[in-house]
Request: fold
Amino acid sequence: ENENIKGSISLQGAIIDDIIFKNYRETLNSKNKVTFLNPKNSKKEYFIETGWAVGGNEKINLPLDDTIWKIKGNSLLTPNSPITLEWNNGNGLTFTKKIELDNKFLFRITQSIKNDSNKAFQFYPYAQITRAGKPEGRQIYILHEGFLGVFGDELKEKDYSDIDDEKFSIQSSKGWLGITDKYWLTALVPEKGKEFKAEFLSKNQKYRANYIIKEAYILNPNSSITNEIKTFVAAKEVAVIDNYAESLGIEKFDLTIDWGWFYFFTKPLFFVIDYFFKLTGNFGVAIVILTACIRIVFFPLANYSFRSMAKMK
Reply:
């Protein structure tokens, strides 16, 4: 729990599957807070899962979605108070996940494997978002809801219907991916400098956004490997999203908010009207002030137009 969210992490599978936005209500007149993520196998399941895939032909006992992890030490995840989950496969491999939460919407997951055996292994870290069904509510043509991601320097947006028709797959060495609603977002950011393969797919009305690192992590005897994943379960607050994009160096992360085709105009306009709103405490007054400012800026052109019309008359 922090100032913005509260929830729980399931020890079965070590997945983030229960998040409530504390500062937002379902409707203006409702006292119910917005519930975003939901447990696996529930009617509206929506969860985030991380783990390791194995390379080579050797069979290894890996932690799966039904594996029960043990918590070490602190059991409450708060800012500056991470938790650590651990699972031993009984064959010399110990898997751990250190999960940290900041003051807003960022989970930082550091997963590692310690090898106490006399064998060497190859592992590939992955992360995925799984969602059952589409979001409720009226879809808006001018606003994208569904899959999105930045791969390299290119933004990719895919509707649910697009993924129903055909799986989307791409490879990149930088970027992020996720699923966006009108107001809410889940996103995954792979470790920097690692080539990864990302996929958007659906099966039986279950939608999934995932990635896997292409380069193998070599785990030698009596050593360990570590991988870091950043994941966001966020309300799309402009200042917060922009701050993450800048402070964490995430390429075009501000595009998680759909500004439309004319974002170079609509985004600055938003900051202006938001300033007037904070100044007056009323959006109606803010709109009036903004309109007056625009009329003043364009007064020379308007005055020239009036003069031309007068001459024609």
Remarks:
- Residues 167 and 201 are 5 Å apart (CA to CA).
- Helices lie at 160-165, 238-247, 263-280, 283-297, 299-312.
- The longest strand covers residues 223-235.
